[in-house]
Amino acid sequence: MKKTYPRILPVLLSVFALLTLFLSGSIIFDLFGLRAKEGNYVLLVVWANFICSLLYLATAYGLVKMKRWSCKILIVAVAILFIGFAGLILHISNGGLYETKTIGAMIFRIGVTLVFTFFCFRQLKKGE
Question: E strands, the chain, where?
Fold first, then answer.
């Protein structure tokens, strides 16, 4: 069990990253008709998610290699998500169109990224 535990976090992070990459990339590049199905998306939020998906993949690689910089990348991802969320709030306050599910999705994504960050620090501390 001790050998599999360090591998769980990078796998979960990779799955989350690839799902995020697919969904945000499909909207940005208008793949599979997902852009039309999303309704009133906020492009800043989609780009923030897309960039974070790449950061998640880099972090997963760093965790496999037990590199200390992995957690720093997740902190950058959290910062990007907070900036994206602030942009969403500004967009909404200026009367821009949006989907209400976007607010919940951003809060969820920030929370999940914070949980990944916590476990990243924990895993690297145990690995020392």
Answer: none
In angstroms, the Cα distances linking 57 to 28, 36, 109, 121 are: 19, 27, 15, 16
Which residues neighbour 25 within 8 Å (Cβ) at sequence distance 6 or greater? 31, 50, 53
Q: Which pTM does this prediction carry?
A: 0.92
pLDDT tens digit string along 37-84?
888 999 999 999 999 999 999 999 999 999 999 999 999 999 999 999
Q: Residue type for 28, please?
A: I
Q: Which is nearest to 58 in space by CA: 46, 48, 69, 43?
A: 69
Residue 103's pLDDT band, with cuts at 50, 70 and 90, is very high
Per-residue buried b or exposed e for 10-26, using 16+ beta carbons within 10 Å of the residue's own CB: bebbbebbeebbebbbb
